[in-house]
Write a structure and sequence with these properties.
138 residues; mainly alpha; 86% helix; single chain; Methane Monooxygenase Hydroxylase, Chain G, domain 1
Length: 138
């Protein structure tokens, strides 16, 4: 591949830095998910939402710079392919962790509901009802 102008290299470098920042946020998000730190998960997702806007802007800038310099943007962007694949895998892993957490929470909720139902049965079996006591005084 012919040498890229420094302006294209700079734009590519900036985009790569944003993707690396996305990786750091996604790894931290995964840890927060596994630890059940839901407020932190929300904050990290908001940071990623903001970063996504910067990535889109940097991508447009890279493509414009490639066009200005007569460089094939697809060839330049191909250099980010393996990094983007890694990010997709991290996002997928986080999605699986979220699904596991949701399943565990659902299971716990079912167990708590079952325990509550059993407690109600025990209370009804061993505790006299108030109506029966009041009826004896009528």
């Amino acid at each position: 591949m012919p040498a890229k102008p420094s302006s294209v290299e700079n734009a590519l470098s900036g985009l790569r830095a944003y993707y690396e920042q996305w990786r750091s946020l996604t790894e931290a998000e995964g840890e927060a998910i596994r630890s059940g730190l839901w407020q932190q998960v929300g904050q990290l997702q908001e940071s990623k939402r903001q970063l996504q806007e910067m990535i889109l802007s940097a991508t447009r800038e890279l493509r414009a710079e490639c066009a200005r310099c007569g460089v094939d943007a697809a060839v330049v962007e191909q250099q980010l392919h393996s990094l983007v694949e890694q990010l997709v895998q991290l996002e997928s892993r986080n999605g699986q962790s979220l699904a596991e957490q949701l399943h565990q929470s659902h299971t716990q909720l079912q167990q708590l509901e079952g325990a509550g139902h059993k407690l109600d049965q025990i209370r009804r079996a061993y505790c006299p009802t108030r109506e029966a006591n009041w009826e004896s005084f009528s």
